[in-house]
TrEMBL record:
This protein's name: 2'-deoxycytidine 5'-triphosphate deaminase
Keyword Plastid: no
Species name: Jiella flava
Taxonomic lineage of the native organism: Bacteria, Pseudomonadati, Pseudomonadota, Alphaproteobacteria, Hyphomicrobiales
GO function terms (MF aspect): dCTP deaminase activity
InterPro entries for the chain: DCD_C, DCD_N, dUTPase-like_sf
Domain (2'-deoxycytidine 5'-triphosphate deaminase C-terminal): residue spans on this chain: 182-370
Keywords: Hydrolase
Length: 371
């Protein structure tokens, strides 16, 4: 295979590509960037994507569609072009498109999927990756050769971003890494994927439920406040929690009413474990469990909640937004499912102690921006 074909990623691999394969894709030219790669940009099973130097305010979200480039659509739909080099504020309720620093020239046997990063989801920033000729968001077909763009729409807080800010991440796949229901059940028996021995497994997903337990007045979640100050996405521990979040306390009945168009941070009742030879993804919306969306940030890297990586099972933080009607959540109610996939190879480093990861061994936890 030629260098352009990504010869360092073998066509015989089946599964999610680990960190060393992602690094090899840079060496082979299957991944490139207009700025040198940063030392912490590659995660155990994903790559952080970085914003480029310019952004476009657009009239509305769009897909380019077959035989159309994103650049051509921006010529039609953009309202305003502005620089991100010195930082710029993205307002709530607006839609922006930013060309990313990274570009793909994928081998014919490698495809990719993107998701918001965990901190992005916890700030209620709606992001989706676009490619030329795309008919779906966040999906990159095998063999794609072209630029990447990020659609950004802050929903609750205005945000400050700049060239190099990381809001999204991408994961690469070969073959069919998803587990069947039988395989998932066997993996749960051997590795304990959640803290519930008798887990609810349906299709290829393992159920997670909401934790609203405790005495009346116990903290069970947070609701985002409106009309706050901005959040600089690159600053850690910089903003007082009370200025941005309203604590949600358990009522006597252990219920929580989700108001339409409000944003909540909640936590799963189950502790989650992702073995080193697997990765997992939260399904963002399941119409069978209610009219709400759970967990913008769908990736769980190998080692999440794993004892060898400094965890002993970590709860899944749930970014929850109701749809058109108020919806009542009750303690223990199923709110989503985790889909596990095989790694093509073990990663060199695991999520957690190896990477000083922000959300290992977490419970109910806001993003890294708040104190």
């Amino acid at each position: 295979m030629s260098e352009k074909d990504g010869s360092t990623v073998s066509a015989t691999l089946h599964g999610i590509l680990p960190d060393r394969s992602i690094a090899a894709m840079f060496e082979a030219g299957a991944l490139s960037a207009r700025r040198p790669r940063e030392s912490d940009q590659i995660q155990p099973a994903s790559l952080d994507l970085r914003l480029g130097p310019v952004a476009y305010r657009v009239r509305a979200s769009f897909l380019p569609g077959r035989d159309h480039s994103v650049a051509a659509k921006l010529d039609r739909f953009s309202l305003h072009e502005f620089s991100l080099s010195g930082g710029a504020v993205l307002e709530t309720g607006c839609v922006y498109v930013v060309p990313l620093l990274e570009r793909l020239a994928l081998p014919a046997h490698v495809r990719a999927t993107a998701n918001p990063k965990s901190s992005t989801g916890r700030l209620d920033i709606f992001t989706r990756v676009l490619t030329d000729n795309a008919q779906e968001f966040d999906k990159v077909p095998a063999g794609y050769d072209g630029p990447l763009y990020l659609e950004i729409s802050p929903r609750t807080f205005p945000i400050l971003v700049r060239e190099g800010s990381r809001l999204s991440q991408i994961r690469f796949r070969c073959g069919e890494p998803a587990l069947s229901a039988a395989d998932l059940a066997a993996l749960h028996r051997s590795a304990g994927l959640t803290s519930e021995a008798d887990a609810n497994i349906s299709g290829a997903g393992i159920a997670l439920s909401i934790d609203l337990a405790g005495e009346p007045g116990t903290l069970v979640g947070y609701r985002g406040k409106r009309h706050t100050g901005l959040v600089d996405v690159d600053r850690r521990a910089a903003y007082p929690l009370a200025d941005y979040w309203e604590p949600m306390l358990r009522g006597g009945a252990g219920e929580l009413v989700l108001d339409p168009d409000e944003f909540y941070i909640l936590v799963s009742k189950e502790a989650v474990h992702v073995p080193p030879d697997h990765a997992a993804e939260m399904t963002p919306f399941d119409p069978l469990v209610g009219e709400f969306r759970v967990h913008y940030a769908g990736f769980f890297d190998p080692g999440f909640g794993h004892s060898a990586a400094g965890g002993s099972g970590s709860r899944a933080v749930l970014e929850v937004r109701s749809h058109d009607v108020p919806f009542i959540l009750e303690d223990g109610q199923i709110v989503g499912r985790l889909v596990y996939e095989r790694m093509a190879e073990l990663p060199d480093r695991l999520y957690g102690a190896d990477l000083s990861s922000n959300y290992q061994a977490q419970g109910l936890k806001l993003s890294k921006h708040f104190v």
